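Customer escalation, tier 2.

The customer says the design service returned an amino acid string that "doesn't look like it belongs to this structure." They asked us to rerun it and document both sides in this ticket. The original structure tokens are below, unchanged.
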């Protein structure tokens, strides 16, 4: 083709577009009528133009493909290995194992048939000898292992260290030193999904994730010269903002890592948020998780961990797992979400959102660092207070029906009954205990309304 498509048309300036909109508004104010003011402090315009951005910064570490992860809880490692092999056969390309106590490692890792797929761990304990044995076994098997150790995340969730500050950091240091001879192991993780599920804005979520990561880089930068960090993020329902959030996270981390002369890339595991999920009209959860996984893929997550539509109230079951896995398989194999790397690159709207989210988050990160850093603000309760304030604002919008969850606070089905369908307790569990700090509590928007409905059944 000798000429560019539509080359016979004159380009239209941003000013001309805006003038046309103002004419169509018939005297209504442009800013009040068509500008959306987001909770992140970003004014979203009705259109975006090449004049909005003079340059498009390259996003470091964007993957060329992505993995479908299956989450498996380990009670009996032999059974878990069998479940893992079955999941891989049905389409999973990564595995995430959760456990609350140690288990026989050889009964799990060596029993996984496909040794080339990445293996992630989310363990609720810190046992140096056990982790070292895991790394040895993975090395012998040629497996890529992501330990996802997050001692600050554990403090934020439980209110306590595994042992104490000094011992926890010492243990992580030992594991980092041990892993330096094996690049197949990634040790440290940042659970930024906690902040999203607790009710932060996207700007807060990114800033807290960056400040959280900075605590590790401050302590362990010398041990991370040949390694990187993993971010475990939660993806909410604001479709384009969530795409931009993941891209902004990569930009922010690259900026931070450059200050420590460390690799600028990070590894990202994305899972749908629990904050906007519901137990009434629960099939709407499938719609929400689908668009959230789309955001994760388009934003550039390395691995997407699907959330079954019934995960809030049902124990793990074959049907829920199959549906959730197939949702991702359809995106990957039938919807061509695996064809192009970084598909959002050059999109005026998403590029603009990426830039603004990164700038605002960096400003908040700098404010946290001027206030003695993330860990000290977490200990003093400042971070928790900011999260509570943001969560309360969002909750008030939901309670006034200004933030909608279809089937829950808008167009609910009064015939829908759930009291006798709950295998799991879907609300915040009270567990009074002595803690060093106030834990950060993840809370769903619909909890209060759902409890009221259950009482009336």
């Amino acid at each position: 083709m000798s000429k560019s498509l539509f080359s016979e048309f004159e380009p239209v300036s941003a000013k001309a577009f805006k003038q046309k909109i103002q004419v169509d508004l018939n005297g209504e104010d442009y800013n009040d009528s068509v500008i959306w003011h987001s909770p992140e402090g970003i004014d979203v315009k009705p259109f975006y133009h090449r004049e909005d951005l003079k340059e498009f910064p390259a996003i470091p570490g964007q993957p060329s493909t992505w993995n479908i992860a299956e989450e498996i809880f380990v009670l009996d490692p032999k059974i878990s290995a069998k479940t893992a092999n079955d999941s891989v056969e049905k389409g999973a390309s990564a595995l995430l194992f959760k456990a609350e106590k140690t288990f026989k490692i050889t009964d799990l890792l060596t029993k996984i048939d496909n040794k080339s797929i990445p293996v992630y761990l989310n363990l609720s304990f810190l046992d140096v000898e056990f982790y070292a044995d895991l790394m040895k076994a993975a090395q012998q098997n040629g497996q890529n292992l992501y330990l996802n150790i997050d001692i600050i995340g554990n403090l934020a969730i439980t209110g306590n260290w595994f042992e104490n500050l000094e011992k926890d950091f010492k243990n992580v240091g030992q594991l980092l030193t041990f892993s330096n001879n094996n690049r197949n192991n990634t040790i440290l993780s940042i659970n930024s999904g906690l902040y999203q599920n607790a009710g932060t804005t996207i700007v807060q979520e990114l800033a807290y994730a960056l400040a959280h990561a900075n605590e590790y880089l401050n302590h362990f930068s010398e041990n991370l010269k040949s390694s990187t960090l993993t971010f475990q993020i939660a993806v909410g329902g604001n479709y384009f903002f969530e795409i931009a959030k993941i891209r902004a996270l990569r930009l922010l981390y690259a900026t931070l890592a450059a200050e420590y002369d460390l690799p600028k890339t990070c590894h990202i595991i994305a899972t749908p948020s629990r904050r906007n999920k519901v137990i009434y009209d629960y099939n709407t959860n499938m719609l929400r998780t689908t668009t959230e996984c789309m955001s994760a893929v388009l934003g550039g997550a390395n691995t997407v961990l699907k959330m079954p539509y019934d995960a809030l109230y049902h124990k793990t079951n074959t049907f829920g797992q199959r549906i959730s896995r197939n949702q991702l398989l359809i995106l990957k194999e039938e919807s061509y979400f695996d064809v192009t790397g970084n598909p959002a690159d050059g999109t005026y709207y998403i590029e603009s959102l990426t830039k603004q989210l990164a700038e605002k988050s960096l400003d908040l990160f700098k404010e946290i660092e001027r206030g003695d850093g993330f860990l000290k603000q977490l200990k003093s309760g400042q971070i928790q207070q900011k999260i509570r304030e943001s969560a309360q604002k969002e909750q008030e919008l939901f309670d006034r029906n200004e933030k909608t969850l279809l089937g829950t606070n808008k167009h609910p089905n009064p015939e829908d009954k759930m009291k006798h369908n709950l295998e799991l307790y879907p609300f915040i569990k009270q567990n009074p205990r002595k803690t060093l700090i106030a834990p950060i509590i993840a809370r769903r928007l619909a909890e209060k309304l759902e409890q009221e409905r259950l009482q009336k059944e």
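Tier 2 assessment: The sequence is consistent with the input. The chain is about 45% helix and 10% strand. Residues 328 and 334 are 10 Å apart (CA to CA). Sent an explanation to the customer and offered a walkthrough call.
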